[in-house]
Protein: T-protein
Amino acid sequence: MAHQLADLRDKIDAVDKQMIDLLAQRLSLVEEVGEVKSEHGLPIYAPDREAAMLASRRAEAESRGVPAQLIEDILRRTMRESYASEKDSGFKCLKPNLGKVVVVGGKGQLGGLFVRMFELSGYQVDILGRQQWENAEEIVKDAGLVVVTVPIDKTLDVIRTLPPLPDNCILCDLTSIKDQPLKAMLDVHQGPVVGLHPMFGPDVPSLAKQVIVHCEGRKADEYAWLLDQFTIWGASLCAMPAKKHDEGMTLIQALRHFTSFAYGSHLSQENPEIETLLQLSSPIYRLELAMVGRLFGQDPNLYGDIILSSPENLSMIKRFHQRFGEAVNLLEGESAKHNFVEHFEQVSDWFGDYSKQFMQESQTLLKQANDAVHRG
Structure:
């Protein structure tokens, strides 16, 4: 038996080495694809091409007796690496005569990411920070684009103290709230203005499939090329009014971050052994614990700024607190289970078909999370 297993494992090792060789070939071809896309200004992410390719490979896999989901998982992971490789090839510059791109706060993590992306696209980039502020007027005098990316609590003050910009200069910000910064930019600059919110962190390997929300300010035709540049980088664009964006972010960011903060605070005071919780956790609970723990591995000032960025956030948190109490009340009395089930079904009706969609999406995530766990 030991000899048979050793022989089979040797054959598996040989196949694995062939897979590595093939992946190396694929990544090399991707580099060539990236060069062609860069030359012709094509986006690194082509959703139609990706969907068609995956459908074709799934069909081919099934015809060979290989689970279709297996080949899709392999290809999606490979494509994620491919998008990162394509980024290193650089990007076509859509506005070569733009003038300087000035990134206010370009030494920060998100600002640094956009500095790199503009430089990869061939733009001349300058950084305006606190140390350079006394020379701000000189730095922006020939700017074609000024990007404000500073902490939320400083954004309005920085926008209001910007020196006069060239008339045709585009002014934009990358803040996670949009209504007030957009109004401030429209007040201080009469040229093109757009509010932007990158829905990702600075640690993304590439911008492929990452969402950038844009809120119209003024002279959209003059900053349309900038949105096209984001598309070339691989980003997906989402147009939205500033107020509607902020209302959504109250639930997506502020409330979620606060509930993670509250749960983490509760855990710390209950003081369980985290290792024991991990041993007892199925993939979904491990993911939930990881998302809470992830919050506390980052800058508390960032999350404090997000949660406290508007009075609406606090009002929403207070309403959640009230409904949390109402949910607790469902668990009391002789009709507790009946009341719980009835309310559960009401909420389920509200989610509608999205419940099935979220179930399918989460199952994929949970399989990946389980694959990554090593249990000795």
User: Anything to note?
Assistant: The beta strands are 100-104, 125-128, 143-148, 170-173, 193-198, 211-218, 236-239. The CA atoms of residues 106 and 112 lie 5 Å apart. The chain has 15 helices and seven strands. The chain has a mean pLDDT of 92.
